[in-house]
Write a structure and sequence with these properties.
Elements lengths: L7 H4 L38 E3 L6 E3 H6 L15 H8 L6 E3 L17 H12 L5 E8 L2 E8 L10 H17 L3 E7 L7 H20 L4 E10 H4 L8 E4 L5 E2 L3 H8 L10 H6 L5 E2 L5 H12 L1 H9 L1
Parallel strand pairs: 5-6, 6-7, 7-8, 7-9, 8-10
Antiparallel strand pairs: 1-2, 3-4, 4-5
Helix pairs in contact: 5-6
The protein binds zinc ion.
């Protein structure tokens, strides 16, 4: 269809021509936002009742998701789960005794970025109800008493600062003293940069405690969940007697973009996923969240068999 073009000159206007000239009182018509009220209002869906699965895009009822340990019932996508929820789903009722529950970080470097570290800590403590990014304690898994450390990604990306390192070290040392197996469930973006070198020191400290634990011939199972990266993967998370991972968890040291830029090579498909690492022998098994407790009990039974036989022989 042919269009006629108008110019200021042909129309004799001083203003730009409009396809539909605006009425004199434009306030009353299309410039005003239409009111959505009364009968026009859509049926309200209360917030926080449904969650859209990022993998299969199904809307999942939150209650169903909670009952399914935050795993999509349609496609088995593993959503992030909080540390408390995870502990609750694994240990026997009322058997968990938390350790160092009130330990909090100190802003030794007086670090200030967009916000000060102190303010960030306070804000995260308020929104998550956690003191830091790990919960530690002793509890029972089936018939086994274990020392359990569970990280929480919602607290500053599960970053490892002095508190995470110290709590885990104390947990491991307690386990060594009491002759208990250690299980650490990791999820972390790495060392906490707000604490600089103090956070990097935690890598050596936790690994040293684990070395003493191994010397006492006690087992340590590391469970990697999405995502476990950087300083945590480069320390206690990768030195388990058994290393398990949840399906599709991202596991690695540097991020894929950094590796791609550094090596100038295309990365293979599935790079840094649990499945990719299992194929190459970096982890021992992929265990779905719903099977985790039973599988851990099975492995603990296997790993402590020798000690039981020695005890039986007197
Ligand atoms: Zn899904």
């Amino acid at each position: 269809m042919a269009t006629t073009s108008f110019t200021k000159k042909t129309l004799g206007f001083d203003v730009e021509p409009a396809v539909t000239p605006p009425p004199a009182n434009s306030e009353t018509t299309f410039l005003k936002k239409p009111k959505l009220g009364g009968k026009q209002k859509k049926k309200e869906i209360p917030e926080g009742l449904w969650t859209k699965c990022p993998k299969c895009e199904t809307m999942v009822f939150d209650k169903e998701l909670d009952e399914n340990l935050k795993v999509c019932p349609k496609c088995s996508h593993h959503f992030t789960i909080g540390a408390r929820e995870r502990i609750h789903s694994m240990v026997e009722t009322c058997s968990f005794e938390e350790m160092d529950a009130d330990m909090t970080s100190v802003d030794v470097l007086r670090f200030t970025g967009v916000a000060s570290y102190k303010d960030k800590l306070e804000a995260y403590q308020k929104t998550t109800g956690l003191k830091d990014a790990v919960i530690t304690g002793c509890g029972k898994l089936g018939n086994f008493r274990v020392a359990l450390g569970v990280m929480d990604f919602s607290f500053l990306g599960g970053s490892m600062g002095s508190v995470v390192g110290e709590k885990l070290t104390r947990l491991i040392e307690t386990a060594t003293d009491r002759g208990l197996p250690v299980i650490i469930i990791s999820t972390s973006g790495g060392a906490r940069m707000y604490e600089g070198m103090f956070s990097l020191m935690q890598m050596a400290k936790t690994c040293a405690a684990l070395a003493y634990h191994a010397k006492a011939k006690l087992p340590y199972i590391s469970v990697l969940t999405h995502p476990t990266t950087a300083g945590v993967m480069a320390s206690y998370a990768s030195v388990g007697d058994l290393i398990l991972a949840e399906p599709a968890a991202m596991i690695g040291f540097a991020g894929p973009r950094v590796i791609k830029d550094t090596t100038q090579a295309d990365l293979p498909p599935g790079f840094q996923t649990a499945e990719f690492l299992l194929e190459r022998g970096l982890i021992d098994a992929i265990v779905p969240r719903k099977e985790m407790k039973d599988r851990l009990i099975y492995y603990l039974d296997f790993l402590t068999e020798g000690k039981r036989q020695v005890a039986a022989l007197g």
